[in-house]
Design brief:
110 residues; three-stranded antiparallel beta sheet; 3 strands; single chain
């Protein structure tokens, strides 16, 4: 009976790394989803600025939150504005691998 008493504690300690890893993966997926929302909004802002005859890249960068502004890449090709944002991550290499891109199109004024 005494031997079985500590068994649950040992199993919990043994399972802790797997639980922490699962939590980290879940949080990283949530951060990637948030980065998609941020990239969508910035691409749309850039396309609207382009349609209004203003600079698309500055408008897209202005629509990004502070954490994403520095690492984001904005590309304007004709009427297409593409914004790529790496999600926040505890491990920078993982964030770069999960970078999210979103595009929006507008017809530039004539």
């Amino acid at each position: 009976m005494n031997k079985e008493r500590g068994q649950a504690s040992i199993e919990l300690v043994a399972a802790m790394p797997a639980l922490l890893l699962a939590g980290l993966v879940a949080m990283q997926l949530l951060a990637a989803g948030y980065a998609l929302t941020v990239a969508d909004g910035a691409a749309e802002a850039g396309a609207l600025a382009l349609a209004g005859g203003q600079g698309a890249a500055p408008a897209a960068r202005a629509a990004l939150p502070g954490w994403a502004r520095e690492d984001a890449r904005v590309r304007v090709d004709g009427g297409r504005v593409t914004v790529t944002v790496p999600p926040p991550s505890l491990i920078p290499a993982v964030g770069e691998r999960l970078a999210i891109s979103s595009s929006a199109m507008a017809r530039p004024p004539r």
